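Need a sequence for this fold. Nothing fancy.
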């Protein structure tokens, strides 16, 4: 078995706990998410590092956003302030993009705010997700250049630009440049 790190162990334990709390078997979660039973099992045992797209599909099948997936159950009393030093970070093992959960965890809000540092030439593709048709997001670019590809439409964003979109549609994030890109995603879960 290859060496696992703390992040893989935490993701595996969190996925297993969420699956159990939803009363789902591996097969049921596989059917809901479109992720193979074997891959889910490997993630739960920290033998595989999920990509952003894969983790989004699993989170959605559990009725969560990625931010909610990374929030701890039973965290200490919710605070309206989220200090940068305590914000959860996660790096996609495939693209190397760094995701920071900015929103205060545990507050009664349907909005999640995430900051992303996206490496040069990176691309993340999300398949269509019927269950997410009620969810929308704003992508607000701070630095660099970002292409948002939704179906056949390409929206090229420059610093200060903001794109609104439904997240049930298939879409790609793509950094076409030789420089890193930094942006925020403001997700409205719509419930």
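Here you go.
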């Amino acid at each position: 078995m290859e060496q696992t790190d703390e992040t893989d162990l935490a993701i595996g334990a969190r996925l297993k706990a969420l699956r159990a709390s939803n009363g789902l078997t591996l097969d049921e979660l596989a059917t809901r998410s479109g992720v193979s039973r074997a891959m889910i099992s490997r993630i739960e045992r920290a033998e595989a590092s999920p990509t952003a797209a894969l983790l989004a599909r699993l989170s959605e099948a559990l009725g969560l956003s990625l931010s909610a997936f990374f929030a701890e159950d039973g965290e200490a009393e919710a605070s309206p302030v989220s200090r940068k030093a305590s914000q959860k970070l996660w790096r996609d093992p495939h693209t190397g993009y760094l995701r920071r959960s900015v929103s205060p965890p545990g507050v009664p809000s349907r909005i999640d705010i995430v900051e992303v540092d996206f490496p040069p030439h990176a691309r993340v593709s999300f398949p269509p997700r019927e269950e997410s048709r009620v969810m929308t997001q704003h992508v607000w670019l701070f630095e660099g250049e970002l292409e948002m590809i939704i179906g056949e439409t390409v929206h090229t964003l420059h610093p200060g630009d903001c794109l609104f979109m439904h997240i049930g549609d298939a879409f790609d994030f793509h950094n076409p440049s030789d420089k890193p890109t930094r942006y925020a995603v403001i997700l409205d879960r719509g419930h």
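For context: The first helix runs from residue 6 to 21.
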